[in-house]
Amino acid sequence: xxxxxxxxxxxxxxxxxxxxxxxxxxxxxxxxxxxxxxxxxxxxxxxxxxxxxxxxxxxxxxxxxxxxxxxxxxxxxxxxxxxxxxxxxxxxxxxxxxxxxxxxxxxxxxxxxxxxxxxxxxxxxxxxxxxxxxxxxxxxxxxxxxxxxxxxxxxxxxxxxxxxxxxxxxxxxxxxxxxxxxxxxxxxxxxxxxxxxxxxxxxxxxxxxxxxxxxxxxxxxxxxxxxxxxxxxxxxxxxxxx
Length: 242
Description:
Layout: H1 2-42, H2 45-61, H3 65-84, E1 88-90, H4 91-109, E2 113-119, E3 127-129, H5 134-145, E4 152-161, E5 164-171, H6 178-185, H7 200-213, E6 218-224, E7 228-236
Parallel strand pairs: 2-4
Antiparallel strand pairs: 1-3, 4-5, 5-7, 6-7
Helix pairs in contact: 2-3, 3-4
């Protein structure tokens, strides 16, 4: 009988120790997270935005025209994200941000990147989730054009089709391997993050569009290796004031 009681006491002490260790681990993680967020808050995004504007003004005073334009473009992108990230914007606002983004990429690629925008006036007041198009363009730049040896071309066309807004983002890059394309098309990537690797950003945009507009909307992707990629986006036309 005494042995059973002793055994029970040992088990209870063991469980108590496990709970204590678990609590300590959770507390340590919570403190680490709090400290990390505190460090993050010390570098305020508005500080970065103001610094970029200061850099642009300095570049203007020094006569560095391209540096000035680059700094202002980056500052506008940062301000756009800070202001709108969790909401919707007009197509016109999203396109303006894309123009700034692609200007920066053209500076980086020198004369190796050509851009073509054709956006119908009919869709410029339509609502779209903020940064719904940017990951698609970034995918074209980083995974299509950057590995390409020759000159790259990216076209962004948008139009209205039976009360749907349609965008087509096309590049003449290296294309997506067939196996990877099949995986992306079937949306079999088990991730909800918005990574920069081929596929994750595309799937995330697809899911965001379906969240906002319904399961009938999203992305259609076509690609051929060594020929390029075309991504078609479609969503319901919702007027900016409607």
